[in-house]
């Protein structure tokens, strides 16, 4: 995601997008390298990482070699980044049925919800300021899903979770 938005920022010559996503891509790369170093199952992680690099190379080739017109390239890359960002913001709601069924928000992170709300709100406002729908539109679901998660934390407070009963010995 960071690399895609970095490419979008470079095409637009938007230094805010470039700076934020350069830092994000560097941190994500460090995380992946640390995970690869410390994981006991190196082969599957390495194969997934190599597959991701191949997809990244294919995407780079598509956007730089096959689309010659810079405006078309910017529009298609913006659309790609938007779809990717929307799917990222919607993914925490995959546990929605489990949360309602168990009446527990144990599988949700409150600090991550706050961070997501603040980040998506900031990017939405930035996109509105630039009048850039590729930045504005995909961040609105981040605000909406954060509000839904805040409501879930209110509806099913963490202290309300049922404690586990010890099994009889």
UniProtKB/TrEMBL annotation:
A Gene Ontology cellular component where this protein is annotated is: plasma membrane
According to the UniProt entry, its GO molecular function terms are: sugar transmembrane transporter activity
- Membrane spanning residue stretches: 15-38, 50-68, 74-96, 108-128, 134-154
At the top level, the lineage of the source is Eukaryota
User: PANTHER family, from UniProt?
Assistant: RAG1-ACTIVATING PROTEIN 1, SUGAR TRANSPORTER SWEET1
Keywords, in A-Z order: Cell membrane, Membrane, Repeat, Sugar transport, Transmembrane, Transmembrane helix, Transport
Gene3D superfamilies per the UniProt record, alphabetical: 1.20.1280.290
What protein does this entry describe? Sugar transporter SWEET1
Q: How does it sit in the membrane?
A: Multi-pass membrane protein
Q: Where in the cell is it found?
A: Cell membrane
Q: State the family named in the UniProt similarity comment for this chain.
A: Belongs to the SWEET sugar transporter family.
KW RNA-binding (keyword) present: no
Q: Where is the signal peptide?
A: none
Entries under InterPro entries matching the protein: SWEET, SWEET_rpt
Q: Which Pfam families match?
A: MtN3_slv
